[in-house]
Amino acid sequence: MRNILLALCLLIPTSVKADGLGFMTPSKNIYCNGGVTGGGHLYCTIINRGGPIPLPKPASCNGYWGHEFYIEASGNVKMICSQRLESVDYTDIAHYGVSGEFGSVNCRSERTGFTCSNADGHGFFLSRRKQLVF
């Protein structure tokens, strides 16, 4: 029953409540996972990216920088130093035109990119051409 409801939610281009499962965009270039506990949070990774990196790489990062973003219900977006980048193959797709809520974190998947913001108005925009932190 749960799979049927989830499938219906992903087919209807409206707002859906996220339940902590991982998902990816139709391009398979951006994938996220998170949950609604503690007000909501979300980790998102973009595999193929271009343009300037939105935040300077810390000296302590010896891995990949500019690919992983973390947002909580409030506060600034954090970027994460990754030791390796790998694609996933989630069955749940955030189709273009669909919005989702992870507690106080709201996201929208569109052909132009993937945007998430929190209750404080902080967030990120991810696309193959550019990534922004606001």
From TrEMBL:
Keyword match Signal: yes
Database matches in Pfam families: DUF6636
Signal peptide as annotated in the record: 1-18
Keyword Signal: yes
Keywords linked to the UniProt accession: Signal
InterPro entries cross-referenced by the UniProt entry: DUF6636
Name of the molecule in the record: Uncharacterized protein
